[in-house]
């Protein structure tokens, strides 16, 4: 059995001969300048490839020194096609006497999960329904058009503005769930089409960057609720989360904020969040805006001035010129609305309401769950420990963008959301077989649990700060 540093993958060429490695050897290669990983018992040196990885270098680096088979299957809609990029990186295989899983993971659980995935594929659960996503996009466009018509016919009175804010908040929230679908490659069979539509929805309709979203969100899915790997639990000293971090901070006498009150100032952060999230509220921002999404909020654009009079849309050339002359609030918007104060007020109302919707829905599945350092669990166990489901109903499905099926979504991120309910019984059965806790709760309880978990963590910090 050959051991040691055959670095064939670094040169971009296959190794001259297949070498065999032990897990002990592989696990040493998890450094910033030295990364190996295992997929289906084959060992790959990805040290240089990580910087060319379409999903970002961090998400693949988080799997260094580990068996990445399930993560590889989860994130790629055509793993066979992607295999061709791995061939030049192949440096060897696991030694015949080595288990397929690292760190004494339950090999039978892993195999049963992979069998479950194969069953889901045979059931065509990874095939999207064009009708579902067409209707979904249609109802978003319908709300945007309704908002335009309201301004045209009813002006900007306070009642109309209030209704308008609710409509646009709803359309923006639902557009957020839709970009999530495209970002996970769960709509089209070809990755390229998913990427194009993802850029259109998140950039053109939301005013955010697709690359920024991919960089953060795939890390979250690869290592959910794991400190230093999941950016969603990197709270920059604003919150202490889970059971271990609060005690660690308390023992070190770290007090960036009064964490024992974090469940209270959590509501204040919801007030400030709208000013930190780029967001636009229109379908008709010029086409170039989603090719290179702006870093600042887009004002809302309507086809009429404040009095409801029609205004001719500007040319693409003039839009481009005024955009670069005045990047934050282009002159075109001043000429269109003639009421910057009302426009800014409406935009802030929409961003405020949408931020609450977004934060409560996305955090109710994760904040109350286990948040800790890396424990090197198998794919099923790590995903279920960090996620929980919300009871199914038509409203819950729509309100959360089917993120009430968070467990199924994390196990199968490329599965179209309308099929989560079909695979759910299989997942629950597998979890029951191996004693893996599958948590599901009502929507109201899930929202309350966010505050409860923050209070619990804050109390742990205070106790450690005062007494340890």
From TrEMBL:
Molecular function (GO) terms for this protein are:
oxidoreductase activity, acting on paired donors, with oxidation of a pair of donors resulting in the reduction of molecular oxygen to two molecules of water
Q: According to its UniProt record, where is this protein located?
A: Membrane
Which GO CC terms are listed, alphabetically? Answer: membrane
Listed under GO biological process in this entry are: unsaturated fatty acid biosynthetic process
Task: List the InterPro entries.
Answer: Cyt_B5-like_heme/steroid-bd, Cyt_B5-like_heme/steroid_sf, FA_desaturase_dom, Fatty_acid_desaturase
Name the domain of life: Eukaryota
Membrane topology, as annotated: Multi-pass membrane protein
Pathway assigned to this chain's UniProt record: Lipid metabolism; polyunsaturated fatty acid biosynthesis
Oxidoreductase keyword on record: yes
Q: Which CDD domains match?
A: Delta6-FADS-like (cd03506)
Q: Which keywords fit this entry according to its UniProt record?
A: Fatty acid biosynthesis, Fatty acid metabolism, Lipid biosynthesis, Lipid metabolism, Membrane, Oxidoreductase, Transmembrane, Transmembrane helix
Cytochrome b5 heme-binding domain location is 18-95
Looking at the UniProt entry, the stretches that span the membrane are 124-142, 148-168, 271-291
Q: Name one Pfam family in it.
A: Cyt-b5
Alphabetized SMART domains for the sequence: Cyt-b5
Member of which family? Belongs to the fatty acid desaturase type 1 family.
Question: What's the protein called, per UniProt?
Answer: FADS2 desaturase
Source organism per entry reads Eulacestoma nigropectus
